[in-house]
Specification:
The protein folds into two domains: 172 residues, Rossmann fold; 161 residues, Rossmann fold, CATH 3.40.50. The chain is of the alpha/beta class. It is 32% helix and 13% strand. Strand 6, helix 4 and strand 7 form a beta-alpha-beta unit.
């Protein structure tokens, strides 16, 4: 049973949004400064909401086209995509998703778990950093596109000294992706876990070496309280589970974090201090709101801001918990991680919907019924 404050979406007595005629040709013939801002904006998770694995979910295209103007209120409604995924550049990912969904998604609308790391690029621009996750050196190139100049991977470390982790023999393809460095003379200032690591054993070993020595692979271990400049450790995605096209959820970067911390605690007796980004963290939701604010100012004028934000997600622990913490409206869909047969969600959303189209219909109808001046 659902919590008493949550009811499935039931269309109102007037014609549904799906059944009304659409005509995009008359949309926005005035310039941007004269456009009236809609009373709401959307933030969508991707996996389990718009797509599942490589496949587009059936109602996703209709939902996004509705926001592009195919709605009875004759207005576009701004939205961004906020995912705990990543591993490649935002431009590449937005182009791929635009092709799949049949709508143009601008790079500025696509926030991955690690997009927020652009904010740190100036501070670490000239310092050696280690990046984890993704295939070969792809996340290195993402970090460099953000402005980081001295970026290394654990494959670089393994190529430098194979005895760092003797249980993995580096392949020719992996070796071709490496950058040469002497890690005994290259103190690493920070470790950024951009995306889900591919070789947990190598990565846990390398990070343990770095944080116990103050940044030198193979350096003497020094208690954390005696280190003059401890290595900063930043995780971008706290998700323990995520939904792919496999029948049951898969473990994610949050599981890698727990594995690393368990090993580090077994070695030292403590967990290593770290910074966490990604949903449901406050920093990530603030970053998403700032991004939507910039879109509103560009489209509707300098003083425009989104009045009501709607988060549509499939994971109560990340999407819904984060939205509730940020005091946004939240809609939980049944097409991803959340399984209603396992009981009510751990974090109660504003609404539960069958799919993303039902979520969008409900939110639009709810806000525009309260704001008839926008009709």
């Amino acid at each position: 049973m659902l919590p008493t404050n949550i009811r499935p979406f039931v269309p109102r007595g007037r014609p549904s949004i799906r059944s009304l005629p659409q005509n995009r040709s008359q949309l926005f013939r005035t310039d941007a400064s004269k456009r009236k801002a809609p009373p709401l904006a959307f933030v969508f998770d991707i996996d389990g909401v718009l797509i599942r694995g490589p496949h587009v979910l059936p109602e996703a295209k209709k939902a996004l086209k509705m926001l592009e103007g195919d709605n009875p209120f004759r207005t576009t409604i701004p939205y961004i995509l906020l995912t705990n995924g990543g591993g490649v550049g935002e431009e590449e990912r937005s182009k791929s998703l635009s092709h799949k969904l049949g709508v143009h998604i601008d790079t500025s609308q696509y926030l991955q778990a690690h997009t927020i790391l652009k904010k740190h690029a100036q501070r670490f621009a000239d310092e050696p950093i280690l990046v984890l996750g993704g295939k070969r050196d792809v996340v290195r190139r993402v970090a460099e596109s953000y402005g980081y100049k001295r970026v290394y991977t654990t494959l670089d470390v393994l190529a430098w000294n194979p005895s760092v982790w003797p249980f993995h023999q580096i392949t020719e393809a992996e070796k071709a992706s490496t950058k040469t460095a002497d890690f005994e003379k290259t103190p690493i200032s920070a470790v950024f876990v951009f995306h889900d690591p591919r070789n947990w054993a190598l990565d846990v070993q390398t990070v343990c070496d770095l944080v116990q020595s103050g940044g030198i692979v193979g350096g003497p271990w020094v208690p954390l309280e005696k280190q003059t400049k401890p290595v900063e450790l930043i995780f971008c995605n706290p998700d323990l589970l995520w939904r792919s096209d496999f029948p049951t959820p898969r473990i994610g970067q949050g599981a890698f974090k727990e594995a690393f911390q368990a090993v580090y605690k077994a070695l030292t007796g403590n967990r290593y201090p770290h910074v966490q980004y990604g949903k449901p963290t406050e920093a990530t939701y603030n970053f998403a709101k700032e991004t939507l604010g910039a879109i509103f100012r560009e489209r509707y004028g300098a003083s425009s801001t989104p009045e009501h934000l709607y988060m549509v997600g499939d994971n109560p622990e990340s999407d819904i918990a984060g939205a509730n913490g940020a005091r946004w409206n939240s809609v939980l869909v049944k097409t991803g991680v959340y399984d209603p047969e396992q009981g009510p969600p751990a974090h109660a959303p504003t609404r539960i919907a069958n799919d993303v189209l039902e979520a969008v219909e409900w939110a639009i109808e709810r806000e525009f019924s309260k704001n008839p001046k926008h009709h």
